[in-house]
Amino acid sequence: MKKVELLSPAGNFKALKGAIHAGADAVYLGGERYGARAYADNFTEEEIIQGIHLAHVFGRKIYLTVNTLVKEKELDFLYDFLLPFYEAGLDGVIVQDFGAFRFIKAHFPGLLLHASTQMTVTGWRGTEFLQKEGISRIVPARELSLNEIVEIKKRTGVETEAFIHGAMCYAYSGQCLFSSILGGRSGNRGRCAQPCRLPYHIGGNSGQKEPYPLSMRDMCTLEILPELIEAGIDSFKIEGRMKRPEYTAGVTAIYRKYIDKYYESCSYDPSDYDTCEGAASNGKYQIEKKDLERLNLLYIRSGTGQGYYHRHNGKDMLTLTSPAYTETDEKLLKDIRETYLDKQLSVAVNAKVTLEAGKCAELTLEGGGESVVQTGDMVQEAQNQPLSEEKVVSQIQKSGQSLLSIDSVEVYKPGEIFIPVGALNRLRREASEKLVMLLAEKNGQGTGKRSGAVPIAEGVEDAREEKTGGRRNGFLLHALVRTKEQLYAAIEQKIERIYLDYTLLADEKLELPKEKTAFYAVTPFVVRNRNEGFLEMICRAVLDGLISGVLIRNLESYAFFEHKLASRQMVLDAGLYLWNRESIRFWTGRVAEYYLPVECNAGEWKSLSIYDGGRYPVQSVQVYGRLPMMISANCIKKTSGVCEKDSGIVMMEDRYGTLFPVYHDCMSCYNVIYNSVPLSLHGMFQGKKRNMQNYRIDFTTENSKETSAVIRYFKGLAEGRSMEPVYSQYTTGHYKRGVE
User: pLDDT exceeding 90 applies to what percent of the chain?
Assistant: First the structure.
């Protein structure tokens, strides 16, 4: 096992230099496109290339974030965006979008791909699936316990990267549409407005003293670092690309200190860090109080915690009274600036210069584990003013803006000689450039070579693609139900396909009629060790013929069913985000149907319509129902002080009096926060050509009467009748506006 990597954030070039100076092994940063921090300063193309060079000179790595969902029209620019960084020797790319993943894999061979935490990887099955597809590292969901991460590592051997410090989201990363639905600023596009940091009251009780039930405490794991190291995590990630360079450098320096302290606290073979096992409990690893105090003064919200490593949820994981950052100490910031940000970053070098009359001057530089020899102009015998040794040392040590610091100079100068000062300067400059390039190349500079691949718009088709069913004439109306009364109402209204929430299928008293209706089970929103048994239940029901197929809501579920069910029996829900042609191609041959993403507008859906039917999966769309805005491991009900372990709905009220239904799923132990009003795309049926094949209406809080009325309404629209909605409040979501 190799030594753990310390991975730091950089929102600008100053933060990058500070991270390297403070001891980061690697730095992750974003360019002017495709990054999940749209409001960070971010890096220009020139700065990223310069940053790759800088990092490689010092033996560090640069990972680029391409961790947003990519629209169809943006895909064509990805090749030109990545090419200069690839050719410069970029060490890896962090991805969320399956289309971007497929694209990069095809056109940039050898470039390491890391699965972003935005992919919501929650188990070893999903990890193994991604690993087989070409992912070299995963950043699992931050909600996973340490034991779950250990299991992923043991079963797959894939590199794992886990957060150790910084801000925490209330929702599973990649499973939050709160900011998007309420304000059009999508977290999946790096523009989250953080509505989770606003006050809310639970159960409509406006007299509560705890108005911030969605605001997570920041993470600080300094005290459990030995445990995390011994768990086999490969990379420790600090959150914070939106924060100041002082934060990056200050936090990096403290974690660098204690990672090194851990390895120093035990005897080990440097080639095998497994020999450090047990150091977590030997008493030698101690935290200095002043370092914890320094961390708490560096842009930390009131109170910190250790995240989910040893707990699933809880009231004390939240900043219930205030989500604001604590006051930052200006003296501390000044100290960080002077130590890490303002000082010249350089490699220590030793020099030997040989100046012998009648021969070319020769300069040897040694540093960073490498050495170079550079020859210069001819050395002459001194006629009038011989060159002194002091002058030679002075000229050779002039580093200027070089990345080298020549600490010692050995001069071999037999006899009285002369060589112009300009020639010495040129000799030093050429030798320095040579050593800098050698160090950079040793660490990966310029390793990316053009593959001859062309942009994907002119590119190749996947040989795995096959026919998955094709488009039929007409269209079908489907319904998704959560309760028995909704189910029976849908059956009575003769819906062609009914999606059953997995909790219904778990009801031993459930009886499904043997008639024309096709029943599909819906997986939990999130699958982890504790609820994987529900996938077994669904699989048995399909194989026994009780139901026809499954609606898949997460990667872990797909990986579970991949070799157990036929592709025609699997449908992907919108939360798996097929935003572009390459993501559709990725899933072609794997599933029969998928739901279009709710954050795209009608025009963006239309741009994908040419990839519908035939060899591609059938496209379907949700036209009614409250959209799930957040899936969270934490529990609103538990935060309010009542945990009855009985699934149900509690209302959450914002500062304007708007009520949001929150479903606490106690069978799988997660919450779903739904929008206050249902989505309604009834306009799609009014005198316009219907491009989709399957239209789904979702039911959450509706009773039997309301369910029947909504179904009748959409059936009437489908038959061409002009009708007013049977509900007074609704939203058209992103159908017209989309997200930036």
Answer: 74
Please give the Cα distance from 251 to 223 (Å, whole number): 14
For 325-376, how does the pLDDT look when each residue is reduced to its tens digit (9 = 90+)?
Answer: 777 888 999 999 999 999 889 999 999 999 999 999 999 999 999 999 999 9
**Which amino acid, residue 347?**
V
Beta strands in 553-707 (DSSP E): 570-572, 593-595, 618-625, 628-632, 648-654, 659-665, 670-674, 679-680, 694-698
Signed CA dihedral, 532, 537, 542, 547: sign only: negative
Q: How confident is the model at residue 462 (pLDDT cuts 50, 70, 90)?
A: very low
Locate 219 and state its tokens: 């993470």
Residue range 82-100: mean pLDDT, rounded: 96
Q: What tens digit of pLDDT does each residue of 380-428 get?
A: 998 888 989 999 999 999 877 789 999 999 999 998 999 999 999 999 9
Q: Is pLDDT at 583 greater than 90 in this prediction?
A: yes
CA-CA-CA-CA dihedral for 195, 201, 207, 212, to nearest 10: -50
Cα separation, 384 vs 296, whole angstroms: 65
Give the whole-angstrom CA distance, residue 531 versus residue 540: 15
Confirm if 287 and 304 have CB atoms less than 8 A apart: no
Give me the phi and psi of 623, to 5 degrees please: -110, -10
550: nearest Cα among 577, 525, 532, 523: 523
Classify 340 in phi/psi space as left (phi over 0), alpha (psi -120 to 50) or beta.
alpha
DSSP bridge pairs for 409? 351
Give the tens place of pLDDT for each residue, 214-246.
Answer: 999 999 999 999 999 999 999 999 999 989 999
Q: Which amino acid is at 520?
A: Y
What lies within 8 Å, CB to CB, of 615 at 6+ separation is 465, 466, 467, 468, 588
The secondary structure of residue 368, as a DSSP letter, is T
Q: Of 404, 451, 407, nearest to 432 (Cα)?
A: 404
What are the residues whose beta carbons fall under 8 Å from the beta carbon of 65, sequence distance 6 or more? 28, 29, 30, 31, 34, 35, 36, 37, 93, 94, 116, 241
**Surface-to-core class of residue 370, CB atoms within 10 Å of its CB (0-12 exposed, 13-18 middle, 19+ buried):** middle
Contact 549, 573 (CB under 8 A): no
Strand positions, DSSP E, 533-617: 549-552, 570-572, 593-595
Task: Supply the pLDDT for residue 687.
Answer: 62
361 is written with which tokens? 């001057």
Q: How many DSSP H helices and E strands does the chain contain?
A: 22, 30
Local confidence band at 210 (pLDDT 50, 70, 90 cut-offs): low
- Residue 572, both tokens: 């992907």
- pLDDT > 80? residue 279: no
DSSP 123-135: SHHHHHHHHHHT-
